[in-house]
Write a structure and sequence with these properties.
By secondary structure, the protein is α/β, with parallel strands linked by helices. The chain is 22% helix and 35% strand. The chain has a single domain, classed as 2,3-Dihydroxybiphenyl 1,2-Dioxygenase, domain 1. Strand 3 and strand 4 form a beta hairpin.
């Protein structure tokens, strides 16, 4: 199976804006985007890749199936319940690019405390935390 079998999924109030932001600021590539036939501001499902990773997203909608899972955005909740970590080869360069594209950097690039690598954290336009770093948990740490 190519890529990771674990794929985070998010909901956005303005999914088209989130799509532009994730591609422009964080470097994701569109893999698939399925807008509503009658309302292109509604995204039923979208997939984005960066390296071997993928994230999926869709629009927050007030429909029966949404209430089954009680989907909310980080902004609706007034806080963050988790973050997405993405391995990148150069966190400093990635941070500079993201900041130049409008990302709000909440933790500047720095060496990790207590384990190898370097990273930073930024917010997307709807308050989700994205952490990017050079630490790759799949690579064994030498003794």
């Amino acid at each position: 199976m190519p890529g990771s079998p674990m794929i985070p999924c998010l909901r956005y109030v303005d999914a088209p804006a989130a799509i532009r932001f994730l591609c422009d600021a964080f470097g994701f590539d569109r893999h698939a985007v399925y807008p509503d036939d009658d309302d292109p501001t509604i995204i039923h499902h979208a997939q984005f890749v960066l390296g071997d990773g993928m994230v999926m997203l869709g629009s927050v909608r007030d429909v029966e199936n949404e209430s089954l899972y009680t989907w909310s955005t980080a902004r609706d909740l007034g806080g963050v319940t988790g973050c997405i970590y993405v391995v990148v080869p150069d966190p400093d360069a990635h941070c500079l690019h993201a900041r130049n594209e409008g990302a709000v950097v909440v933790q500047e690039p720095r060496d990790n405390d207590g384990y190898p690598g370097r990273g930073y954290s930024a917010l997307d336009p709807e308050g989700n935390v994205w952490s990017f770093g050079s630490y790759d948990p799949w690579v064994p740490i030498p003794d």
